[in-house]
Design brief:
With 328 residues, the chain is of the alpha/beta class. It is built from 11 helices and 7 strands. The two termini are 29 Å apart. The structure holds zinc ion.
Length: 328
């Protein structure tokens, strides 16, 4: 609570200073391919393709491992596959000296450095447009120093606004500042599996990671298959996918196995910059509440897939009974 209060006062102070900027011209230090024509054709390869998008790098991983070890493990796992990921940075988690070290390692490895807001606010009824806009702008400063900063914004919790007015106003702001949405197509609850693993270690320090790894892999492959099929049914083609994962202890320990498991299941890892060129990422579903996986929202918009759509698309409530049953 203390942290929350502190942050809200920081944001209020920032909002007074930054409100005037909300409608100022886009900063020219951010870039993204703006051409209307994709530079590369849609995925016509036989194998489904996906890129890794990793959210919320943090200096605070609890007692399981230090951020330095998590960072080097995750970066190494990705470099083995010779692809570039997209890192979605939430400023409050890295806004101290060590945070710059963490982010610099990603930047030097060539990964996209993207905006995930400063305070991770849920853009729902409790967050007015102005607060959300200020928080987004505040985070531009966090990624500004990096060579590979990229004008992609990912909404916290994938929530894009609870009213048409708020949804459209923020989309307009993104456009004015040269941003596109860093959409997730394959949504998942990896954060919850890691949280359960950390909770278990708190009670049983020698608990093995293997069953959590296996659950995580099965969960991610299941979600990938679900969203791939949904995309095929909604769009009639294989798109380039973006899978949502997080900077957390479990992923730091088992990411090599996760990446290998996708390949064994037939997937091909590609660069995030290539994935985000797929034309699907230009779509702007007119759903309310807005958000979720881009594929979820596009399916929802058609009104033809109600039997396959739950709300929210992914959450801990769906995984809890399964993990409980397995004693995880
Ligand atoms: Zn996040």
């Amino acid at each position: 609570m203390k942290r929350r209060k502190f942050l809200s006062s920081v944001v209020k102070t920032a909002s007074n200073a930054a409100c005037a900027q909300v409608f100022s011209p886009a900063l020219n230090f951010l870039f993204l391919p703006q051409s209307s024509a994709p530079k590369t054709p849609p995925n016509t390869s036989a194998r489904p393709q996906l890129s890794l998008t990793l959210d919320d790098p943090t200096l605070s991983l609890g007692s399981v491992l230090k951020w330095q070890e998590a960072n080097s493990r995750i970066l190494k796992a990705i470099s083995v596959k010779d692809v570039r990921a997209a890192l979605f940075v939430c400023g409050m988690r890295v806004d101290e000296e060590d945070g710059a070290k963490l982010l610099t390692a990603w930047d030097r490895a060539g990964h996209l450095m993207c905006n995930h807001s400063y305070s991770h606010k849920l853009y729902g009824e409790r967050t007015p447009y102005a607060d959300f806009a200020v928080d987004f702008l505040k985070n531009e400063k966090v990624i500004a120093p990096y060579h590979n900063r990229t004008a992609l914004f990912r909404y916290p919790f994938l929530k894009e606004g609870d009213t048409a007015d708020k949804r459209d106003r923020f989309r307009t702001l993104l456009k004015e500042r040269g941003y596109r949405v860093g959409h997730v197509t394959i949504d998942a609850s990896d954060w919850y599996v890691s949280q359960r693993f950390v909770d278990r270690l708190g009670k049983q320090p020698n608990a093995p990671v293997t069953p959590y790894r296996d659950f995580l892999i099965a969960h991610l492959l299941d979600r990938a298959a679900f969203y791939r099929q949904l995309a095929l049914d909604v769009l009639g083609r294989d798109i380039r996918h973006t899978v949502l994962m997080h900077f957390n202890p479990l992923n730091a320990l088992v990411l090599p196995d996760v990446l290998n498991a996708f390949e064994s299941a037939g997937w091909q890892w590609i660069d995030a910059s290539v994935a985000f060129e797929d034309p699907v990422f230009r779509s702007q579903p007119q759903t309310l509440p807005a958000g979720e996986s881009l594929i979820w929202a596009l399916a929802k918009e058609t009104g033809r897939f109600e039997d396959r759509l739950r709300y929210p698309g992914e959450d801990d409530i769906y995984e809890k009974p399964k993990m409980d049953a397995l004693g995880l």
